[in-house]
Amino acid sequence: MSQSCDSSGSCATKATKESQQAALAQQDNAITRSLGKIKNKILVMSGKGGVGKSTVSVNLALSLAQQGYQVGLMDVDIHGPDVVRMLNLQGTLEAPSAPDALVPPLRYNDNLKVVSLEYMMRDRDEAIIWRGPLKIQAIRQFIADMDWGELDYLIIDAPPGTGDEPLTVAQTIPLVKAIVVTTPQKVALADVRKSINFCRSVNVEIVGVVENMSGFVCPHCNQTVDIFKSGGGEEVAREFDLPFLGRVPMDPKVVAAGDDGVPYLSTTTDSPAVQAFGEIVAAIERRLPPVAAPSPLKMAGAGACACSSGGCGSQKGS
């Protein structure tokens, strides 16, 4: 059997290469099938860790769902998947009913579906020590296996930086767009510039910039104090001629709610943070309109609210 060698000196048979190419093409078809009914795909990314990217992802997905849209939330952060814990989701993904069947995501409520790479791990506390090729294959397989159905929005929570995970998402998911999260500090702003340049290098359209931890909400008087400055995210957006979606203040109640697995936006509590997310969602709706007008949300369990035929009116800022 004839053989061919690559530049590194390793040899592989033509049959092996053809088999690998066929498997890759089959996976590409599966990814297209999985994502084919999703109108808007949004990658939430940041230049560095600790800026609240997962908090933004979770609450953005919740807020869109509360508006009545069909929303998916996918966590592809291999080393630090937090979405499941922040939503306090229990259970496991169901095994496919047939070899070529897709896997249904977990349901948080009637309008929000959730999946996380954490469900691929036997032990959720086990450290994941994978090199790039393993990460890429895991993410591609993960995307290909999911049965999302029809969605208005798919929110993808990626790890910080511009490494294998966001690059794989950018190259794997057709027409994915990005929201870049930063904090006002200069060190975060320096890293967010790299994220913006990353998106431009891989031809990913940027929906806009979100400035998180923009001030601190006093738990006593509910006023916002600029401990970490404010306006840096808006300045970067202006520098790169990008839309500025809004600024979210640091609210101790939001942090506590995430730790308890009861996200703040699933409650009826009003606060500057809830109002800020409402403004951000309104900006996203204008830039990325859904498939159709939203239907009233039928909340199940946590986050119940009274909905009328005109939509969910008991949740301000959602």
Q: Which helices and strands, and how do they pair?
A:
Layout: E1 3-5, E2 11-13, H1 14-35, E3 38-46, H2 53-66, E4 71-75, H3 83-87, E5 106-109, E6 112-116, H4 132-145, E7 151-157, H5 164-172, E8 177-182, H6 186-201, E9 206-217, E10 224-225, H7 232-239, E11 244-250, H8 252-260, H9 272-287, E12 307-308, E13 311-312
Parallel strand pairs: 3-7, 3-8, 4-6, 4-7, 8-9, 9-11
Antiparallel strand pairs: 1-2, 5-6, 9-10, 12-13
Helix pairs in contact: 1-4, 2-9, 4-5
GO molecular function: ATP binding; ATP hydrolysis activity; ATP-dependent FeS chaperone activity; iron-sulfur cluster binding; metal ion binding
Subunit structure: Homodimer.
Binding site for ATP: 47-54
Q: Which percent range fits the helix content?
A: 25-40%
The helix-strand sequence is: EEHEHEHEEHEHEHEEHEHHEE
Count, helices: 9
CATH class division: Alpha Beta
The computed structural class is alpha/beta
Give the second-level CATH assignment, the architecture.
3-Layer(aba) Sandwich
Please tell me what the overall shape is: globular
Tell me how many strands there are: 13
| Computed CA radius of gyration, to the nearest angstrom | 20 Å
CATH topology heading: Rossmann fold
Major sheet description: 9 strands, mixed
Low-confidence stretches: 297-318
- The overall pLDDT average reads 78
CATH superfamily: P-loop containing nucleotide triphosphate hydrolases
Number of domains: 1
Distance between the termini: 63 Å
Taken as a percent bin, the fraction of beta residues is 15-25%
Tell me which oligomeric state these chains represent.
single chain
Pfam family, one: ParA
Subunit structure: Homodimer.
Protein name: Iron-sulfur cluster carrier protein
Keywords: ATP-binding, Hydrolase, Iron, Iron-sulfur, Metal-binding, Nucleotide-binding
